[in-house]
Every structure is written in structure tokens, then in C-alpha cells.
Automatic annotation (TrEMBL), chain A:
It comes from Pararhizobium mangrovi. It comes from the Bacteria. Belongs to the UPF0434 family. InterPro entries: Trm112-like. GO terms for cellular component: cytosol. It holds the Pfam family Trm112p. Gene3D superfamilies: 2.20.25.10. The lineage of its organism: Bacteria, Pseudomonadati, Pseudomonadota, Alphaproteobacteria, Hyphomicrobiales. This is UPF0434 protein FJU11_10920.
From TrEMBL, chain B:
Transmembrane segments: none annotated. It comes from Pararhizobium mangrovi. It comes from the Bacteria. Pathway: Cofactor biosynthesis; ubiquinone biosynthesis; Quinol/quinone metabolism; menaquinone biosynthesis; menaquinol from 1,4-dihydroxy-2-naphthoate: step 2/2. HAMAP family: MenG_UbiE_methyltr (MF_01813). It catalyses: a 2-demethylmenaquinol + S-adenosyl-L-methionine = a menaquinol + S-adenosyl-L-homocysteine + H(+); a 2-methoxy-6-(all-trans-polyprenyl)benzene-1,4-diol + S-adenosyl-L-methionine = a 5-methoxy-2-methyl-3-(all-trans-polyprenyl)benzene-1,4-diol + S-adenosyl-L-homocysteine + H(+). The keyword S-adenosyl-L-methionine applies. Residues 1-21 are annotated as: Disordered. Methyltransferase required for the conversion of demethylmenaquinol (DMKH2) to menaquinol (MKH2) and the conversion of 2-polyprenyl-6-methoxy-1,4-benzoquinol (DDMQH2) to 2-polyprenyl-3-methyl-6-methoxy-1,4-benzoquinol (DMQH2). Belongs to the class I-like SAM-binding methyltransferase superfamily. MenG/UbiE family. PROSITE patterns: SAM_MT_UBIE, UBIE_1, UBIE_2. This is Ubiquinone/menaquinone biosynthesis C-methyltransferase UbiE. Its EC number is 2.1.1.163, 2.1.1.201.
Amino acid sequence: MNRRPEAERGAIDPLMLEMLVCPLTKARLVYDRKNGELVSEGARLAYPIREGVPIMLVSEARHLEDRPAPTHRSGY
Amino acid sequence: MSNERASGGEGMETSYGYETVGEGEKQGRVNAVFDRVASRYDLMNDLMSAGLHRVWKDNMVAALNPPRKRGYRALDVAGGTGDIAFRILKSSGGQAHVTVLDVNGAMLAEGQGRADKRGLSDKIDFVEANAEELPFEARSFDAVTIAFGIRNVPRIEVALGEAYRVLRRGGRFLCLEFSRVDVPFLEQAYEQWSFHAIPRIGRLVAGDEEPYRYLVESIRKFPSQGDFASMIERAGFERVRYTNYSGGIAALHSGWKL
């Protein structure tokens, strides 16, 4: 697959951001540009964005108390 | 092990093909199948349908008939490789916007690569998420489609409820899935083909028999046309109809949120 520039990997399309909610609470998300994550305050979860794709899975999300998860993803 | 077709959604949660697995285990097992077949997904569908899946998908999007106007938004659930999304875009004259959702990252990566190659990245979004927990606001889409994906979802009725939630009033749900063959001779022939030929071909071509056996068995477990239509109605959809394709090898179910 295409490798995008480093800076773009955690980036997200603003229109997409407008549409997304937390899959658990269905509440709006806050985009954390620095970490490339979508933060659900209510669920205390941060969903990663990889290659521009938001990963809206609780199993992949970081609990807000924890450190940022490594950006490398096994599998591809 | 059970090869009985489920009549409602019951049992689909813990059935991995004919094998019974623990609650919560199915998603992981299904995911492993798609990790293994992502790059050969078209080949797999060609094998399962003798190439007919392309025609069925064309028919599905013809039935959807997306308008050639801006602002029309479709969500394709379990649509990783972009097969349906590209057809919707084409049919809308490039006016629609399609969000492709899949629980499997390998399938999405395949679709993203194809979208880049076709220069369609502006009109398609990719989201990795679960069909049972859609990460979208209520009433966000004009259409929700799912092609050959619903039988892999553990809790089908939950996924149907989510599809209903994210649709706007007047929005349409379309679901294409392998179904129950209703032509006696064809049924026997298809049975032979799917249980004996497909896993062997899978082993020869892809070097792996097990994922293909899962796919064949999961097709046989999935509720029949009428039973699935009832499930769609229970989720709140109205004017629920289905159309058999190729003698019921596949069926297109349609419902409206009115």
C-alpha cells in the first residue's frame, strides 16, 4: 500500500472529523493533533489515526491515563 | 458442530462456520480469516460465486440508484476493499460521498490502495470500526449498504439496529449476501461445488484451505431470505423486500427508514 508522509499519518479530513462520534458513548470527539488521536472524554479513550484512517475500535484505543501507544502496527 | 441454518440471529454470535465458539470469540476468528485473504479477496469471491459476485454487486448499486447530485452520503459497512464504494461513486457520476467501514485493517488498506490508484481518495473515507458499534451520529447517511459482510457479524440484530440509527429518514438499507438456493437441481450442484471444490481450490490457489471452508460453512449457517427479512423488519425498517440472484445463491434485501 501507499506510504504517506510521516506528518500525514495521524492527520484527518475535517469533514470526517465532523461526522465521527465515539462508538461507545456516541458523543463528539476531540482531535488531538499532536498525538494523532481522537479523544472521547466520556469513555476516557483515545482512538488512534493510522495512515489517515481513524481506528474506532475500543480494543485499539488507549486509555487516557496510559502513555501514547506506539504508532507501529503489526500485520502490515 | 451444527450445520443447521439459523432462523433468526440466534446462534450466529457463536457460530464460526459449523464450529461453535465462545461468546466474543467469533470476531477474532473471522478477522484472522480476512487477514489471510485480503489481497486475494476478489479471487475468493470469484471462486465462491463463479464470477457472478461482480454482476450481483452491479445489480445492487443499480437498485440503490444513487442520485447524481452533491451531498448524497452512503456508508458501506464491511466494505474494506472498496468494491461497492467505487460502484456507488461511478453510478452517481462522481457526486456521492462514500464512507467505507471495515473491522479489518488489512481489507481497508487494500481498498485505500485501490482508491489512491483510481484517484478517488477525495470522495471516499475509510474508517476501521465494528458494524455493531458504528462511530457516526444518528441520521448521517442517505444509504447504508453491506455486501457479503453481514454473515460475519457476530450480533446481526445489533448491526441492523446501528444501520437504522445512522440512516436519515427516507434513507435506504441494502444488504447483499449469499443465501438459500431455491432451485432443487442447482442446490445440489452448488452444495457439491462449495463443500468439495472451493476448499480444495483455496488450498491450491491460496495455499490455505481453512479460511475457504469457513466461508462456505458460514454461508450455510446464515438465515434464509424470509427469516432475514423478518430480522430487518424487527430493526425498524419498512417496505422490506428481497430479490434472489442466480436462483438464490445470493439475495439482495432492501428496507427503508421512513
